[in-house]
Write a structure and sequence with these properties.
Oligomer: single chain
Structural class: alpha/beta
Number of helices: 5
Order of helices and strands: HEEHHEHEEH
Strand order of the largest sheet: 2-1-3-4-5
Mean pLDDT: 96
Distance between the termini: 43 Å
Helix content: 40-55%
Largest sheet: 5 strands, mixed
Low-confidence stretches: none
Strand content: 15-25%
């Protein structure tokens, strides 16, 4: 499956999150062309600040692979990772990160800070903007609806 195909899987997970009232972020971790980890935001549902899509997907990937290091894996996430999730990418040694929409408020791949530019022990390859319009539209619609409900 191509990059767009894996990002579409992440977008489907993001839509599942939105359906649960969660910020629509979805993530898949892929190894040798097979999805080994999936996740979507569940912070509100779980009342847990750590329940980000990326952390869930990394946890499942580690379980599937049987090892905490994931250098031969790629991550596809619909929103630019925050500092916590970018740190998890570094710690898991993920080989390549693809993200959709940039996050001008919390993005740690260049929007607010570029965590990967620091001298940590691992630097993943990064490609942003994959299906960014679709990912961004999903987020925009979610927050627009949320604002309407609060009025």
């Amino acid at each position: 499956m191509a990059v767009d195909g894996f990002m579409r899987e992440a977008l489907a997970l993001a839509r599942r999150a939105a359906g649960r009232g969660e910020v629509p972020v979805g993530c898949v971790v892929v190894r040798d062309g097979t999805v080994v980890g999936r996740g979507y935001n569940t912070r509100e549902t779980d009342q847990n600040a750590l329940a980000h899509a990326e952390l869930t997907a990394i946890g499942e990937a580690c379980e599937t692979v049987g090892f905490w290091r994931l250098p031969d894996c790629e991550m596809f996430v619909t929103l630019e990772p925050c500092p916590m999730c970018a740190g998890a990418v570094i710690n898991a040694r993920i080989g390549k990160l693809y993200y959709g929409a940039p996050d001008p408020k919390a993005g740690a791949c260049g929007s607010v800070i570029d965590l990967f530019s620091y001298p940590f022990n691992h630097k993943p390859a990064v490609a942003g903007g994959v299906l960014a319009e679709e990912a961004g539209a999903l987020l925009t619609a979610f927050f627009s609806e949320l604002r309407k409900r609060k009025m």
